[in-house]
Amino acid sequence: MARGGFNLGGANMQQLMKEAQRMQDNMAKAKEEVDNSEFEATVGGGVVKAVVYGRKELKSIEINPECVDPDDVEMLQDLIIGAVNEALRSADEAMNTKMAKFTGGMNLGF
Asked: What is the DSSP letter of 58?
C-alpha cells in the first residue's frame, strides 16, 4: 500500500490518465461546438436583434428602420446593448450547460 493509504497501481493509474484525457478531449470538443454556435436575442418587440457566436463575438445587429427615431437615439442604444447582452447570456448559459455534463454541475467558470 502506498503512503497515505492509496493503492494506485500502474494499470489503475494508466486507466485513470486515459479517462482524464478522454474527458479533456470531450470538453474541448463541446467548447468548440458552443464557440462556433450562434445565439440571438431580440428586444423591443423585434426592434433590435443581436446575433453572437458562443466565443462571445458579435456577428450581427439588425435594427428595424421604422423604429429609428433621430430624436431618441438613447433608446435605440439601450435596445442594442440589451439585445447584445441577452445574446451573450444565452451563449454563457449554453456553455455552462455543456460543461456541466463533464463537471458534475460544479461551476468552474467556463
From this structure: E
